[in-house]
Structures are given as structure tokens and as C-alpha cells.
Amino acid sequence: MAYIVKNVHTVSDELLEELKLVSVSTASHTLVEMGYRNAYMQGIMPLAFPEGQQSAVGRAVTLRFVPLREDLVKQQYDTLPESPHREALESIMKNDVLVIDTGSHMETGVVGDIFTRRLRYLGGQAIIVDGCVRDLQRIKQVDFPVLARGVHGGAIPRSLMSVGVNEPIRCGGVTVIPGDIILADRDGCVAIPPQCVEEIVKIARAHDELEERWIKMKLDEGASLHTHYPPNAEARLEFEQWKKENGYA
Amino acid sequence: MAYIVKNVHTVSDELLEELKLVSVSTASHTLVEMGYRNAYMQGIMPLAFPEGQQSAVGRAVTLRFVPLREDLVKQQYDTLPESPHREALESIMKNDVLVIDTGSHMETGVVGDIFTRRLRYLGGQAIIVDGCVRDLQRIKQVDFPVLARGVHGGAIPRSLMSVGVNEPIRCGGVTVIPGDIILADRDGCVAIPPQCVEEIVKIARAHDELEERWIKMKLDEGASLHTHYPPNAEARLEFEQWKKENGYA
Amino acid sequence: MAYIVKNVHTVSDELLEELKLVSVSTASHTLVEMGYRNAYMQGIMPLAFPEGQQSAVGRAVTLRFVPLREDLVKQQYDTLPESPHREALESIMKNDVLVIDTGSHMETGVVGDIFTRRLRYLGGQAIIVDGCVRDLQRIKQVDFPVLARGVHGGAIPRSLMSVGVNEPIRCGGVTVIPGDIILADRDGCVAIPPQCVEEIVKIARAHDELEERWIKMKLDEGASLHTHYPPNAEARLEFEQWKKENGYA
Amino acid sequence: MAYIVKNVHTVSDELLEELKLVSVSTASHTLVEMGYRNAYMQGIMPLAFPEGQQSAVGRAVTLRFVPLREDLVKQQYDTLPESPHREALESIMKNDVLVIDTGSHMETGVVGDIFTRRLRYLGGQAIIVDGCVRDLQRIKQVDFPVLARGVHGGAIPRSLMSVGVNEPIRCGGVTVIPGDIILADRDGCVAIPPQCVEEIVKIARAHDELEERWIKMKLDEGASLHTHYPPNAEARLEFEQWKKENGYA
Amino acid sequence: MAYIVKNVHTVSDELLEELKLVSVSTASHTLVEMGYRNAYMQGIMPLAFPEGQQSAVGRAVTLRFVPLREDLVKQQYDTLPESPHREALESIMKNDVLVIDTGSHMETGVVGDIFTRRLRYLGGQAIIVDGCVRDLQRIKQVDFPVLARGVHGGAIPRSLMSVGVNEPIRCGGVTVIPGDIILADRDGCVAIPPQCVEEIVKIARAHDELEERWIKMKLDEGASLHTHYPPNAEARLEFEQWKKENGYA
Amino acid sequence: MAYIVKNVHTVSDELLEELKLVSVSTASHTLVEMGYRNAYMQGIMPLAFPEGQQSAVGRAVTLRFVPLREDLVKQQYDTLPESPHREALESIMKNDVLVIDTGSHMETGVVGDIFTRRLRYLGGQAIIVDGCVRDLQRIKQVDFPVLARGVHGGAIPRSLMSVGVNEPIRCGGVTVIPGDIILADRDGCVAIPPQCVEEIVKIARAHDELEERWIKMKLDEGASLHTHYPPNAEARLEFEQWKKENGYA
Questions:
Q1: Where does this protein hold substrate (chains A, B, C, D, E, F) (predicted)?
Q2: H or E element, residue C106
């Protein structure tokens, strides 16, 4: 039976571009303040991330694996065009991110360098796996962001089979709905409800570009957390003055 | 997107009745020998089981929860008739077993005595939860088989929301497909592919009613495992003789 | 340095008495609805609970252990009157509950039958341990509610030392502040901020004595969750009518 | 290559009989005080224990399993007389205890009711498993002490193979050497170096029969832990007096 | 009692050399297809691996630790020449790999830079530890492949003692038999039954040198997984043609 | 109630300077030999460590978090000057190390780059967290030693509140008392009782500067562990001779 919950908002490519300037840490904290407690995916870390690339952003395409059942995996492999994980991969479009739920299964790898290479070709932006990847050395040569829980030498048929594409899934303790916006950097990744992206970009810009810059400057001059983090009334006046003098809106 | 793998066999109520005489342990081991390694659900134990009832058997109806997302659970609760977990419960028919995947979530309970009572009324045979139940004391008063990983005082809205009914799910490290046959007793539970039930009943009958009875008798007379478990050629002759003398086919 | 956060409310013995009629499950769920997500202590289960006693209620006295440091435990044992765990035990007054934080340490027991016996004598109502007890068989003979994570044969000096009494502590993932009200039954236990007790008793009475009784009656007559749990407008009218006819306020 | 460490002491059946009066908790704590930190097996609990039997005592026979290797298990099963786990079982003599190391493997059962029945016939006193048993319901009917970490429906060939008998093994985080004395009761079990048994029996007798009896009496009269547990100089005089008056040595 | 299962095949140094060109990932997957499910050691990762070295290969020498028992470790240390871990280390020959089973013990380190240095001198190829190493910084200076589960500052006498050399052991959930062939690279390591090495080298060569090279080229040209991975009939013809044109056998 | 156990020794800045030459591994092992089993913090690894810096040393200032309680965190945030974690940070003096106990909470970060920057300004030497940091990328830019269990995008208010400064705490399974000396390097960190520092420096100097240097030289010449590690009588003479010839005391 089809799931009930779904995203009704979408996000433009331009807004995705702006989101790239926000850190996972800022987005994660901002979402908590907006009432979304579960956005940061715990334990899903960047195992491969291109040098010089600051972050990866895209729309979630989801894929779900369950432990293989011997009769059904045979049924699945006999009718290859229908294999959900191949469907998911080939369905990837520009600015998609593939998010994979294996049930935190640590006993086989579900993504290797071939899949990664294909995803990059199709315009995908990252792969996120609540589980293991395989052949990490060759994945690294593809120069593409891959986040996962660990590494295992085995491949899918060792113990898993795919059963669903674009369903709501669990990843790192977080629900990911198709169309959620994924933001990943070296601190991990976060699933953002599409309707929140604009607000996050706005808050993060204020936070990252101005406050943080000014506060760090003040800290280097010896300012105390008590007065400057967060700024008290007096410090805030000082900050507004500084903004004016330095050409910030 | 709908899942691919599915059951194509069904099992009659009469065969379900016969399966009740088989132990989870025998069914689990027989399935391994038939090539199904993952049938026993690890860590899902009977928290409530009616005294005097030996086992519970039924057809799997599946239900899947994911961590709640604040905007979507609101969307779900505003349109209550569509809530998947209520749909699942009300869809229960005679000889069904409700199997619930929460991602082994230990931080809230998903089944209490009200749901248990309704399921019993509708002819359900058991509830299996990869996660927690709540209000176990009142569940016990319903006198109905409930197997789960643990207990938590919280209710669904604390941290989960339901997203799918009758999809393939994970439960205790085992894939459960709608229509799988669930067998539960005081040793836990097992998901049986429908096409295997007849064979299991046949093997188990031979195993449980004859071999085991005879071997235990021989053990009590001092027989060694080396000769009698499994029986060597000589012991097997002796066993065939005993069967004839005691009126077994 | 002394902690900052503290309880400013207290609860009368009469209110404690009324709280005994509330189940842990109802209190836990009610607290979530009141905005307290972390009240139920995950994994702390009743290992000993007197037959026929429905629940235990009291004011939290807290005790904290850390891994023993060889020089300091010696310093502590040389000046026995100051040993925090003995201070804590001897400070117990009527309607207190001793709550112990060991850091979920599973490698030694911190409470045995002697401590349990003394606590009962002093009017304590229960012992809650995020860690292990020892000599559970003899604890059971004391006939007193003891909830813990597990059992270990070792005693405190094997690997722990006590360092603080009546500080805020962690127990089962929940913060317990001295003076919090502890409610324990066969489903586990919950820490209730004192100012919430009155409201919980009121809500629980409405919930447990009326709604639940009536809904169960309706379920036994075949009512659907869709219409009766929670009751829709029509069912609610029916319920109000039933209340009037059966003498409930 | 044979192991190096070994026991050089043995214990008489009479001493084993006396050890039955000591609790696991007292033995475990006494061993810590004698300098043996790791004697209590953490997490290995009695899953079956005959009603009315207080404890089980015997000499350790050890058995070690490793994950099955497909070629070698075949080699092993083709030459059945050599299968180590059957060798171990058939080697059991009066007052032996079988202790099994599976590497805390929770994915199959290694002992069922047939093995338990044979062990009882041969005069064994208990089975201790760092791993799972299967068919617990039938094991319970054998009325024999079996301690383990959990239950699994699968049998040995699902994922394990036996490789060694009477080697030093790990069980519950404790090293067990063949010939160690195992003491088990409802609080779990402890491995005792043979040379320590006599001392433990002596200390435990003093502790259990006298001190504990007297202190409990005093606690029921309201004595404080500060003066009576452990007894201070004055209380000790009182205790000596009481001993004389009540006919203890 | 000596173990039963054993390797009967051996592998030449030349074949070991060829195995160095195979990746752990390819070997692991190939073994699953050959019927060996448990070859990849889960969670045992390269903590030190010489820059520029692609992989390490050698014959397993095994070593097993158990938790220290105070009387026996003393007995062992009084007779140092017999200490199994020193025996194991000094027995290392050209193209051996030392594989150590500590029971996944994370509370002390068993290998430091001195042992690593000696092993390298003797011609060893790698050290694999299911447990912790210590002094990782100095190990890195030895420039030698060391794979383990983690790091701990403590040394062996803190909590372990060695008991057996060249027994079957568990490492990363995998059975390792003396004489098994170990292959390690940056993705972890795999234990290969000796009789399988030749086949793996052959399969891997076909897989790694030809298919993978060609498929990656095709993927970079936009080929779909549906047609090219694995290649369908048409793609396979194209591949055979390409092989001929590019001088592959 | 204030804790009982406390440090009575202090350590001079000069001695701290000398301690910087000792490795965590050597200090940890030496402490075990001096009778302190629990000094190395298991699982707390350097996530940021300035290139070229060998180790960090300082006096422990402790800080303890518990799971947030909604009413009390509000009470705390309404009176910001009293917030314990800000008090702790602003109290840092030259050669202090901030050690944070979150109960191994992995569901939010407690230290980011702002706190790290302030601590460095105040003369702090390192931050040690039994829990998570956030914004690790920006922490790395501060070029300051930060050791923790992991990374999480969330900030303190997501799920924690601070309750105590300079109490005894748990960190990585180790008790840390205010004033303990913390030594951290790329192998992790260790808490040293102040009275032990002088002895450790002395032992480590002998160990690191002479023995280790000489033994490594001998190992590179092919010396066996049997004769040279530890050195037997003959090797020790050789070593004393070498010391004299090379100008060591």
C-alpha cells in the first residue's frame, strides 16, 4: 500500500546553489530551532569527498534494501529490468542525491565504484548510505561525495535485496522523504524539508557571513562569551555599527 | 514505487492449523536446511503469551514506522482516516498476524492494550514488533500473543510515524513479505515462505512425533549421541522396528 | 561547583498516594504531551517487585558513581563516614526513592539485599539503578521494588566509587533532579517534575477510569478504532451519555 | 600448538558439595578480594533452572565454536566421530559442567534438549553458553540448569562449527580453564580457580551463616549502616557476644 | 584437545605474488560466489598502511588471547620462553601474516611498534588484530601494514594473556585457520582458503583487467547499467570485439 | 552535596612541560604498572590535532551535561550568567584542559569552533569530549587539539543541558577529577593523578630515550624478542655498556 506522507513543496536549482554555502552544522542547528529535531543523520560520515569541494546538495531519491530472501531474490534476479536498485540508479536526474536504507546492515556493501560512476554521469550530486560501501579505494578515484556508515568487501547478493524506490525511508535515524533536500559536507549530512530551505539559507547567511565573522574577530581580541556569544544588548549595537562600517546590509 | 518481490503462494486455514504443532525451533532449523538462512527473528521474544497456548500461527500483515517528521506527522494526523497504522489494524482478518517494523527503535512503544484488544476481536493471531510495546501489564490481561524487543512507556507520537502497510519489511533481521506465514511460540518467532509450510509440517511431524520421541527414550536408557543422534545405520533399523511395533506409519 | 538547575516545587504525601493509581505508561505519554520528551527511563526494568503491589511512588534522592580511582577510593574508604553511598542510604526518609547513576556500568553490582533492607526500614519506596544489582535472589526475599539494568555478582569496590549525593544525574537516558517524583510499576519507571504531578493525576483519572473503561467495552462490542479511538464527535456524545448514566462526573 | 596456562589443583567431590551452599554473589565478591577481578560471567543468565534447586556446581569441560567455514564444516561432518562438540558431550563425567564459547554469537543456537538430556544422563551438573540455546521450552522440561546469553531457533550448522575441547576459553568476559570450578545459581555464574574453593567456602560460611544473619536481624531492629555494616568495634563485640550466646564457634 | 578442522592445501610464493593484484573487494565477492559467505573481516580496518603499497598478502599464523587470570598470567610470566605471543612472533617466516584473536577486546592494546618491527624483520607481511593496537604513531613509523579494530594505550598485561598459537580463531566474524591466505588492502582484509587462491586470481584478472576497464570506459560514454552491467548479449559481443582489437586474450 | 574524593597534589608548569615528551601509550602502560588500571580514555580520539604538535598537556577542568529537561533548561537559559558550560569555559586558565562528560551522548554536539577559539585564547591546551563535537571543519581551522567520540551537527539545546563544573566525572570509562593532569596525543588521551606525574616522566625518559632507542637498533640488527625485549641479563649488560659509550647517564 502506498505511503501517506509526502512532500508537497519543491526547490529550484538556484536555491540549491545557494544552500551550498551553508554548513551542515548550521543547517542542522537551524532546523532544530525551526522545530525539526531529527535532521542530522547520526553516524553517516563522508568516506569519499572531492578535495576542494565544500559541500554537496540535491533532491533525495530513496532506495530501500531488506535482508535477502532466497526464493525472492532469485525471482528478482530472473527479471532483472525490475530490480529496484537498478531502477533507482537509472532514474537519477541532474541534482539528485541517492539515499539508501539498508537497516544499518554492516555485513555487505551496496555501492561500489561502478554505481558511483554511473550516478555522477547522470548528474547526481552524492550517495548517502545507512550501511556499507565496497571498493572504497576505487570509489575515491571517481572523485564524488559518498557518505556511509562503513566499508565491507561483500556485494549486494551476499545478504540483501532491494525492495522499494522513492518510499519514505530511515537513514542515520532520520526519515528521508523523496524530494527532501540533502546537504552533505565533511561533518556529515542533513535531510531538509523542501519548504525550509529558503529560511535556512536566509538565517545561515546572517549567521555565517556576519555574526560569526564578527564574533570570531572579537574573540581574537579577547571578548568573553558572556558578553559576545550570543551578543548582549551593548555588543549587538557594536555589531550593527560594525556592519554599517563594513558595507553589510 | 511499488515493491517488486512478492509471494505467489497461499496457505489454507487447515494447513495453518497443522503448523501449530510444529515448534519454532524445528521450523527454523528445517528452513535453514531448505536453503532459507534468515527465518528466525533474532531478539523478538514473547512478552505476553496466553498460558496453555502452545503456539500462534497466521498470515503476515506488515506495517512500517519511520522516525516522525514534524511537518508530515501533522499532515498525517490532520487526515486521520489515512493513518497507515490504523489502516493496518482495521484491515486485520481471521488468521492474520500483524508484523511491525520500527527500525528496532527502542525509544517509544507502538502497541498497547487497546490495539491488542482490537486485533484479537478481528480474528488476528499475534502481534510481532521489532521495537517496543507499552502498557505491557494491560496487554497481558488481554491474553493474546505479543512478541517484541522491549518495553517503553511512550506512545507512537513521541518519536515515530507510520508510512506503509503490506510492504516487505525487516523484523528481527528477517525480511517479512505480506502473506508470509508467521509461527510464534515461547522460543520466539519465524517467518515462513508460504510454499514451504507443507514441507515443514511433513518434516516436523516425522522429526517431532517419531525420531525425537524415540531418541529421548533411548537417551534415557543411556544411548550415546555417537550412535543415536543422528541414528547410525544400526540404530535406524532399530528405530524402524520400533515404529512398526508402535503403530507409526 | 554546585549545579544550577533545581526543583522549586514539592509534592504532598497525599498527592503521592493518588499518583499510585496512575500507570507508568499513562504518565509517560501524558508527560510527552505536556512537553517533557524524556521521562521514561529506557531499559531500567523491575527485577524485584512485590506480588500484589501495583506501583511504587516517591521523591528522588540521587546518588552518582564513577569508575574507581585507586588512590581516591582508598582515601574514601579510610574516611568511611563520608562515603557518599552510605550517606545517601542513611539520608533516606519516608516516601523517598533512591535513584543511582553508575554510567550504565554493567561490570559490578551496586545494590544488594542489605542496602535494600535498610532502605525499606527507613521508609524508602523503591531503588532505581542505571546499572546492576547483586544477590538478586536475596533482594527478592526483602519484598521491595528494585529496578535496574541487570545483575552482576561483584560488589562496589570491584570497579566503582560513589562521588555525589543529590546532584542532577542521568538514569536510563533521563535526567533526575533531587525531589523529582518517581513512579515505578511492572512497565518500568518515569521521573516526573513535581509541578506536573497534579495535572498527571487529573488527566490519568479521566483517561484511565472513564475513557479506557468505556472504549474497551465498546471494542469488545466490535467498535472500530476509526470511530472510537480516539472517539469521533458522535462517539464522544455517546460517551458523555454513558458517563451520565453510570454516575461519573 | 597446545596452550600454556593450566590448572594444577583439583577439588574433591566433598568440597564441591560444600560449595553449593555459597551464593554466586558471595563467591564473586570474595574472589575480587582475593585478587581475581574477572570471575563473574557478565550477561550469562539462567534460562532454565530446576525449581527448588539452589545452585549447581561442577568441574569445567570447555568447548569452543568458530564461525563455520563451508569447506571445513563439510570435512568435519564427513568424519563425524571427530566432531569436537560431540566429543565434548560424550566425555562428560559425574560433576562436570560444560562451558561453551561461541564468541557471543547470537545468530544460532548450540544446545537443545537432546544435548541437555544426554549431559544430565552422564552426570553433568550444568551447561553454560556464551551464546544462544534453542528449543528452550523443551530444555525446561529436562529440568536441568542451563545458562546462556539468549535464544535462537537455528541449530549449529546454520553458522558455527566446533574446533576445540578443553582449551582455555572466554565465556561472559571471563577466562575458563578446564578444571575450573563453576558455581551457578539464579544470579548467574562464576568460574573459580580450583585452589581458591576451600578459602571461599570458609569465608562464605563466616559471611553467610553468621554475619549476614546477625546484621539482618540488627537492620530489622533499626541499626544503621554506619555502625553495623561493616560492624564497627563496638558492634563487633556485640556480634561476638551474640555468637557465643547462640552456639556459633 | 587439538582441533579437528585443518587446511590441507598450500600456496606457492609465486601465486601469493599474483594475488597482490586482486582487490579485497573483488576477492571477497568472488568468495561469496564460490560458496564462502564469511571471508571479509568486518570492522578490521587499516590503521597503518605504507604509502604506495597497494596490498599485503601472506599465510596466516594465528594467535589467541583470553582475559587474564591473575594466577595463570603469573605462572605464564614466570616461564617466559613459553609465552604464546612471543612464540608466535618469533615463529614468523617470510610471507607470513600474524592474525590475532582477542575476542574483540577493546580495553587494551596487544601490538605496538616493537612487535611490528620484529615481524617486519622476520619477513612477515602484515598484522591483523581483532582488538586494539597501541602506540599507533610509532607503528606508523615502521611503515608496515597493521589492521585492527581500534587503539588503546594499555599493554597486554593490563587485561589479557595469550593461550594458543596456530589454532583456528575468530577475527572480524571470520574463522581463520593457520595457513589461510590473508589479503589486505585499504578496504580491509579477507581470509582465503588456500585451495581457492588460484581460482580467485583467475576470476579477478578477467574481472579487473578487462571487464571493469571496458565497462568504465562505456559508462564514461553514457552506457546504462541495464545494458552494460552486467553486459547483456549485445554488449558482450561488443566487449569480445573490443578485447580482440586491444590485444587481450 | 559536594563530592568527597579530591586531588591534594598539584603539578608545576615545568613538570607539565616535561610530560609533553611522554607518549600517551607509555604513560598509560606505566600507570597500569603503578596500580592505576583506568587511565586511558577508551574511544576518545583526536578529531583535530595541529600538525607538527606532538602532544597536549594540562590540568583538568571538568564539565558535566545531562539530558535536557524542558522546564529546567528554560530556567537555566533565562539566567544565562549561571549557565555551567559558559562558566566552565570562561574559567579556563593557562595550561588547563577542558574535559566534558555528556554520558557518551551521540545525539548532539557540545563544542564548536567558537568555544574552541575562546578556550585557546584563554590559554587552554585541549578539549576532551566523551560525546560529540559539531562543525569539525571549522574547529580544524582553529588549529587546536580536540578529542571526542564523534561528530553531530546539532548544538547543545537539541538534547543536553550542563549541570556541574569541576565535579568528578566519567570520560571514556575513566574518572577525571579536577586537577588531574591530562596528556593527549594522536593515540588518544590519559588522565594522570597529579602525584604520579613526576614518576611517569622519570620512567618514560628511561624507557623512551634509552631502552626503546637501543632495542630498536638491536631489532634492526636481528635481535630476538626472547633475548632483548625485555632484555635478559646478558643483553642488559650490553645495554649498560652501550649507554656508557654513548654518553647516557
A1: 134
A2: strand C96-111
